[in-house]
Amino acid sequence: MNIVFLDRSTLGDDLDTSVLGKYGRVIEYPITPPELLKERVEDADVIVINKIKVNESLLENAKRLRLVCEFATGYDNIDLDLCREKGVAVCNVVGYSTESVAQITVATVLNLYCHLPEYARATMNGEYTKGGVANILVPPYRELFGKTWGVVGYGNIGRAVGRVAKALGCKVIVNKRTPCEDAEIVDIDTLCREADIITLHTPLNDGTRGIISRERISNMKDGVVIVNEARGAIWDESAVRDGVLSGKIGAIGCDVFSYEPFDEKHPFWSIKGLDNVCLTPHMAWAAYEARCRCLSETEKNIISFLSGGDRNRVDLK
Asked: Active site residue: 39, 60, 260, 289, which one?
């Protein structure tokens, strides 16, 4: 059996994937450009992917393919209907990155609220020393205590972020599809109007695509801080850029983009150097411990599939 990693470099060089050699021949490619996809999948029985799109172009050339292992939770890069049609099983990994993403989310909010890069820069570049004053208080920062923190999407990650927000003294309001007892649930428009901080953790689907729209941004509090740790298409990226430039949005943090890596054509290119913009390279999921858990879960998915099980089979939903 051939187990083929098509974008191995997205998993990190410090991750030991040799454990999967117990189940077949492991073949690893750092990245797979479109022109090499055909030859790399034609003998694959199992493919392990992180960002590669599983579509008609891939599947028509993967005649031996039996299983797609998504090395992540989200699987919007996979055409599930086509996989079902061709009898290809699809597994994802759930819950492995909760602590990692929650940590980066909160760190991003704290970074933006406390202006630590600006203060550190003033110290490192000599401004503090030359000023002759015992402190620098510009730009002014504010406490999170007493602020309203809106969480969009209340799965494992949203819950973890909500717990930390409460510990910091914030009032937490949540937008989610189904009711729950451990959170104050509000509709998305109410959340956008009332929140001082908004963090996004919802899956990308037809109901959430563009949920943070230009109109909803216009109804937000002036100076709102928004952090997107979900998917780039969850919000209107052009509207977000315009909100930052106009001052309506006080600050943004973002680890995900509508296409990755983004380039000079992307709306965020013009604001990437601003102090109130914190853009990170889709790394929030990837603490070392999280990636180790993800590999372990992927191995369990393969074992289950080979023994006739349906562990984490998203194609069966």
From this structure: 260
